[in-house]
Structure formats: C-alpha cells, structure tokens
Design a protein that fits this description.
alpha+beta, Helix Hairpins, D-amino Acid Aminotransferase, Chain A, domain 1, 13 helices, 31% helix, binds zinc ion
Length: 460
C-alpha cells in the first residue's frame, strides 16, 4: 500500500514533469537538460510500477499506450462545431464589416485576426482539469473519439491546474513541415505512397489504431476556442486566447487586434507572403468580432456564425514544363525519380525540380517528359506536380521508364513484391555507399563539420 508520503511524492513528480514538458514543448525554452528530465520521468515510472493503484489516466506516463477504440466511436457535441463562411477578397471583408455594424447598430467594431492553420479541428474535453476525451470535428455535430491518439501530442496538456469543473477546448491538430518532410522521405524509402500535404498527413496520423504510430508522427496543437464550459467568465476573444495560454495550451502567437476592417485587410495582405516562412501550413486568416457580448448579439445562421469569417488565400500553383526525368539514389538503394522543370517562380522561391516519388505516382498522374504541368508546394516546401495539362500535349511527349540497370554501378534494378520502390540490390554499389557516408556525416547523425557531398565524392 502506498503511504501518504509516496502519494505526495508522486503528485510532486507529476507537477514537475508537467512544468518541464510545458517549457520544452510549448515554450521551446527548457530549463533542465534532457538527462535531468529523463531522471524525473524514470522516478515516476518506477513509483507507478511499484504502486499501480496510483496510476491515473492524466499522469504524464500515460501519453502513449492507452488503447485506441478500434472503431473510433461516434460522440455528439454539446455545442456544435460550426464552420465559418469564407471570404476571398477585400470587398467581401468590407461587406462582412457592414453587416456586422448594421447588426449591432454601431459605427466601429474591434476585430481579432488569427492565422488559419491547415490541420484538423479538435474538441478536447476536460473534467476537473483532466483530459477525458478528444473528438474530431466530424460533421460538426457528431465527432469521432480519438482520445488515445490525441494524448500522444505533447502540446496538449493531460492535466490543467486551476481548471473549471467542465471545459471543452477547441483548436487545430497539425503536422509541422519538418515532421511532414521527414515522414514522406521515410515513406519514399519504404516504397509507400507519400502524403499529399501536411493536413492529409496529420489526418492519417490521427486515425491510427496504434497510438505508438501517432506518437511517432510529431503532431502539434494550437488552441483557439472554447466549446461548452462551466465556471469560466470570459468576455472577448483576446481574453480567451490569454486564458488558454494561462492553461498552458499552445496559442498561435500571430493573433492581432484591429479597430477597423481596413486594418484587418492590411494584416491579411501582409500574411499572404509572410506565412510561407512559418514552420507549418496556413491557408488563410480567421477574422472574429472580439467582444463576446457583440458575438452573441449577432448570433448565427443555420450554417455559420455571423461574427466571424475565414479569409482564404488562393492556392499557389504555377505552370511549367517537365524537361527530363532523372533518377537519384537513396542510402537504402531506392531509386527515386524526379522531374527537372523549366525554372519558375513559386511561393517565394525559384523551382527547378519536383519529386516524383516512385513509378506508381508517375503512372497514376501519367507524367511524361515534355508535359506541361501545374506545380504546387507540398508542406509549402517541396514542389509537387498536381496535374498534367494533357490538352497541351503535342504527341512528342515521352513515357518514362525506370532504368533496368543501376545508373551508378550497372547492376540490375529490382522491384520488391508489394512495394512501389525500385532498388539497386548491390551492397557494394558506389551510389549506396556515397549516400550512406553523406548521411553518416550529416547533422542528424554524427554531425561531422565540413564533410558534405563534395568531400565524400573526393574520398570515394
Ligand atoms: Zn547500384
């Protein structure tokens, strides 16, 4: 039996671990080393092993390992998760402003703008501070229970101090671009189809039967709203965002208050360019009337609230031409086709190459050398071909075929049963050795300064 003293020790350890993981994951400002953190965590694990009766679902040790319900049970929301009406131009925002002022009978209104994160909306239910349920948005009235999977997301608190008895926190689960790029590289190497963008990757990662898989995907969460709640007095969106921060949620720092719609439009235009520098995808800006009393006065239509708008940025796609298709080698011998493109400007950079992933991808889209294509940035970093402009074909386009022999060593190339990838299986292939050495010396591995591809080439 656990003594009072042990119970107290467990409580203290949990509090300390929560504090340090908040500093690490949300604030990105750790105060202790990973080693010290692991030591605290280990002490808690050991105590919980010795006294299993002390384990609670909101303990920091319980992030991974809970069982996912195999059918993601359906749950009805107490308050629906409404979608927002869209605006695509400054004039549509001015119309919105006019309707708001008429509805309220006032001459000026305070607005809050927030970046619209391209992820999945989530409703998190907290009872007496403990996270008890995580639900996807579903159709807005009934969501899917993904509790075991959202618990693996480190920026979602499992326990909140000084929380009201009941509270629903709403926000966006998203995949940072860095995680997205690493995940797709892994999938290319494993001969799996890549995810089209960060949002699809986040959705796929959240609907996993095994929470260990979700945990490995490095998802994150931005909080921006409350659903149903008891025991909280909040008067404006600005106050709400500050309260969510105080509850140790990650709130996107780029929100801003404006006293006119012209200010809002200025902010919207500014972020259309700046958003490409962020570490995650955004597809627009959300504009809300700041004052909650005014929000209530305006109310909602059947479909969406009258006090908010989602301004959508146009997708950035440009036309270019596939000059040729080349094959590069990865460190496991996988041959990856890429398209050399006529250089073109896209979302702030000049693009000359797009990844084609594998032969299945090329066949599915029917990409040929000489084709005119539309390209966009997946995860807003790596260019991808979205569509082939088949009406622009002249008949001179050439179908690409994977070489039968390795372009580096000349040994036969094999396609492994059930995989999309082609590999050079020669263990002494110069290409594989080269890629392995580059990886070995890279920052993510041994971090050997100065040993880049050209030094590796000289060495070989
Ligand atoms: Zn080879």
């Amino acid at each position: 039996m656990a003594t009072e003293e042990i119970r107290k020790k467990v409580q203290e350890l949990r509090k300390e671990i929560r504090h340090h993981s908040y500093l690490y994951y949300v604030k990105d400002a750790p105060e202790i080393t990973d080693y010290e953190f692991d030591h605290l965590y280990r002490q808690l694990v050991d105590l919980e092993k010795e006294y299993p009766e002390l384990v609670t679902p909101d303990s920091p040790t319980q992030r991974v390992g809970g069982k996912a319900s195999d059918d993601f049970g359906k749950v009805r929301f107490r308050k629906p998760m409404l979608s927002l009406a869209n605006a695509f131009s400054a004039d549509e925002l001015r119309d919105f402003d006019r309707r708001v002022k008429e509805g309220l009978g006032v001459n000026s209104v305070e607005y809050i703008t927030e970046l619209k994160i391209d992820g999945l909306s989530m409703n998190l239910i907290y009872e007496n501070g403990s996270l008890v349920q995580g639900l996807t948005r579903g159709d807005g009235r009934v969501g899917e229970d993904v509790t075991a999977n959202v618990k693996t997301i480190h920026t979602i608190p499992l326990y909140i101090e000084n929380a009201p008895p009941y509270m629903e926190v709403r926000g966006e689960v998203y995949m940072p671009r860095k995680s997205f790029i690493a995940l797709n590289e892994e999938r290319d190497e494993a001969g799996l189809m890549p995810f089209a963008n960060c949002r699809n990757a986040a959705a796929g990662s959240l609907r996993q039967l095994d929470p260990h898989v979700t945990a490995s995907r490095n998802l994150a969460f931005f909080a921006y709203a409350l659903g149903d709640m008891q025991g909280l007095e909040i008067h404006s969106q600005e106050e709400l965002l500050k309260q969510l921060e105080a509850f140790h949620f990650q709130v996107n720092p780029n929100y801003r208050k404006w006293d006119s719609i012209e200010g809002v439009i200025k902010g919207v235009n500014e972020w259309e360019v700046k958003r490409h520098d962020l570490g995650y995808d955004t597809d627009g800006m959300v504009i809300k009337v700041n004052d909650f009393a005014q929000q209530n006065q305006l109310g909602a239509t059947v479909k969406d609230p009258k006090w908010a708008m989602a301004y959508k940025y146009p997708p950035e796609e440009v036309e270019t031409k596939v000059e040729r298709i080349i094959v590069t080698m990865g460190r496991t011998g996988v041959l990856t086709p890429s398209a050399d493109l006529t250089p073109v400007h896209l979302a702030g950079t000049t693009v000359k190459r797009a990844t084609l992933h594998n032969m299945d991808f090329i066949h599915e889209k029917d990409i040929r050398v000489g084709d005119h294509v539309m390209i966009y940035k997946a995860g807003e970093i790596i260019p991808e071909i979205s569509t082939v402009l088949k009406n622009k074909r002249t008949g001179k386009e050439e179908i690409f075929e994977m070489p039968k022999t390795c372009p580096i060593c000349g040994e036969p190339v094999h396609r492994i049963e059930g995989e999309a990838a082609y590999r050079c299986t020669n263990p002494n292939c110069g290409g594989v050795v080269r890629e392995k050495l580059i990886h070995f010396a890279s920052r993510d591995a041994m971090d050997i300064e100065g040993m880049g591809p050209s030094v590796v080439d000289s060495l070989l």
